[in-house]
Amino acid sequence: MDFSESESDGAAAGHEGAQKSVSPAKDRWTSGEAYEIWMGRWSSLLADDFLQWLALPPRASWLDVCCGTGILSVAIAQACKASRVVGIDRSPPQVEFARRHHAGRGIEVHLAEATALPFAEQSFDACVAGLGLNFVPDPVAALREMRRVTRPGGTIAAYVWEYSGPVRFLREFWDVATAVDPEAASFDQGRRFPICTRDGLRAAFREAGLGGAELRALEITTRFANFDDYWSPFLLGQGSAPVYLAGRDERIRTAIRDRLKATLPGNADGSIVLNARALAIRAPRG
Question: What is the rounded (10 degree) CA torsion for 145, 146, 151, 154?
Fold first, then answer.
């Protein structure tokens, strides 16, 4: 991901067609290990579907922006027969995790800003961002940088959770949290990230000079062995919902937990199965 704990809180500021993202203090990416538990299993499923949709030819060079722990970078290295795979992220713990766990896989990982990529113009055949674009303070500036470092005829692409829609493992949490504690609404990604909609993604790509964009929904199923398997990642302090929960007192945390346990749809064996959807977008580099 693209934010670290040390950054200060900030309000959203609008572009003409898309909006800048908001408030890094509401999102924390300070542990690669915790992120893998919180989001890694779902990121891997999305990455596979995303790359199948792109269907780029072998021997391409790839840049993974907001690479986090390297989930999409690894998927590229494994599935795409790439000539080069480079990941960048601004979170030192995530970069360190990616370097340590993916050494020997032919992946380069650099500490860098998505809005100031340390590469020459037209360095890559494909430039992608998985589940990270909305966490960049200025996603349009990041897309312009992605366009700058992509060769003519190459591909710029990204995917984000459709937070206001059927990302049920998060939507169920935020609906309950807001009912218990109205202050939860200010952390809800469905409210905070207008780019995470079809119109928001199209507007951002258009403003970045990327015409001819195509969108596709990426549908996955999130499966939890039991309620504790669902709930425990919320206690790890990584991402929006866990950061919100860590800032509440025990009374509010218990009330949210108990209401979720009572209302989440469970199977006879105690397992919980929830659908989730991300939105993917791609455009050629003209």
Answer: -150
Position 13 in a domain: no
For residue 96, the domain's CATH number is 3.40.50.150
* Helix residue spans in the chain (DSSP H): 32-35, 41-54, 71-79, 92-101, 139-148, 168-180, 189-192, 198-207, 227-231, 240-246, 250-263
Classify residue 15: in a domain, yes or no.
Answer: no
Number of other CB atoms surrounding residue 100 within 10 Å: 12
Pairing assessment for the beta strands 150-161 and 124-130 based on DSSP bridges: parallel
pLDDT tens-digit series, residues 46-92: 999 999 999 999 999 999 999 999 999 999 999 999 999 999 999 99
Q: Can you give the pLDDT at residue 233?
A: 96
Q: Does 202 fall in a domain?
A: yes
The pTM assigned to this predicted structure is: 0.89
The verdict on residue 18 lying in a domain is no
pLDDT of residue 31: 85
Question: Rounded distance, CA 179 to CA 173, Å?
Answer: 10
Number of domains present in the structure of the chain: 1
pLDDT digits (tens, 9 = 90+) for 203-242: 999 999 999 999 999 999 999 999 999 999 999 988 899 9
Alpha-carbon distance of 59 to 286, in angstroms, equals 20
Task: List the domain range (segments joined by +) for residue 98.
Answer: 24-284
Query: Cα–Cα distances in Å, from 140 out to 10, 69, 145?
Result: 17, 23, 9
Percent of the chain with pLDDT over 70: 92
